[in-house]
Amino acid sequence: MPQTLYIILPAYNESANIESVVAQWHPVVEKIGGNSRLLIIDDGSKDDTYSKMLELGKRYPYLEAITKPNSGHGRTLLFGYNLALERNADWIFQTDSDGHTDPNEFQAFWENRNEYDFLIGVRNNRQDGSSRVFVTKVLKLVLLATFGVSVPDANTPFRLINAATLRKYLGLIPADSFLSNVVMSTLIVKDKVPVKWIPITFKPRQAGKNSINLKSITKIGLKAIRDFRQIKKSYERSKRP
């Protein structure tokens, strides 16, 4: 019996990218077939992202377009993860809808899935700007100081996750967390969950504007530090006999 894959892509104001991103990722899901889906979640875009998604759905049978009120990237991911679990997906793959990632690199993840619970990309030769590379390095230090673990690339939007293992960790992630992938990556490293880190390319944004700027990064970072402390306490309580 074929395994079911849900590819989760959050989308916010991605009108300029959405058609090319669907064209690139739909064949991945189509190849696996069955009840697999390319699930794109419009996070309350102010442009015509969602209407374009609906039109694309007429041409791409494995595409499912959903829209919801704007709540931010992290909450949208949690929404998608929970929906995939409700649909009994066996594996969940998450990437973003801005064209940074390469679908051709997915196959190496899929071929190794039975040996690991998580397969996460490590971004090499990043082309998304020096400020974001700097933020990733600072985040790595913050996680080391807070949780005592070194995470190679905690926030990579290129990850294949075993559904049963994902279910165990969702409850430890705050519902309002903007950095849900970061929390997940950190906790699985701390618990020594079987994980494979695979180098990936990370291209420039294909089109459109990035909705995250230095001001928003700073705001997110300050909240994250507070959240990490609370998450650590919750995690430690969950481990007590």
From TrEMBL:
InterPro entries: Glyco_trans_2-like, Glycosyltransferase_2, Nucleotide-diphossugar_trans. It comes from the Bacteria. Pfam families: Glycos_transf_2. Gene3D superfamilies: Spore Coat Polysaccharide Biosynthesis Protein SpsA, Chain A (3.90.550.10). Residues 7-134 form the Glycosyltransferase 2-like domain. This is Glycosyltransferase family 2 protein.
